[in-house]
Amino acid sequence: WQGIIDNKCGKWVEVGADALASALRELAQENLEEIGCNGREWMLREFSQDSMARRFVDLYKKISGHNI
User: Fold this and answer.
1) Which of 8-16's residues contact partners 24+ apart within 8 Å by CB, and which partners?
2) Which of 9, 17, 37, 41 has the fewest CB atoms within 10 Å of its CB?
3) Which value, in Å, is the radius of gyration of the alpha carbons in the chain?
4) Reduced to 3 DSSP states, what percent helix, strand and coil does the chain have, rounded to the nearest 5?
5) φ, ψ (nearest 5 deg) of residue 8
6) Residue 7 DSSP one-character state
7) pLDDT tens digits, residue range 8-40?
8) 63 — phi, psi (to 5°)?
9) What is the pTM of this model?
10) Burial letters 36-47, b for 16+ CB under 10 A, else e
């Protein structure tokens, strides 16, 4: 969940109605479009098909001991 904070795309909220209500009040004061764009950029950078494919290739190289 640290990625949410690091990438400025939301808030980590403890379980409970009071914590959720507080987080929603805070978010209502922020630029939600910017938060959404930050989240989209993070997802594309870290979890897109290309990014995941590169990670798997790197992992396979590492565990096989071969340079593919």
Assistant:
1) 8/34, 8/35, 8/38, 9/35, 9/36, 9/38, 9/39, 9/42, 10/35, 10/39
2) 17
3) 17
4) 70, 0, 30
5) 50, 50
6) T
7) 999 989 999 999 999 999 999 999 999 999 999
8) -80, -20
9) 0.68
10) eebbeebeeeee
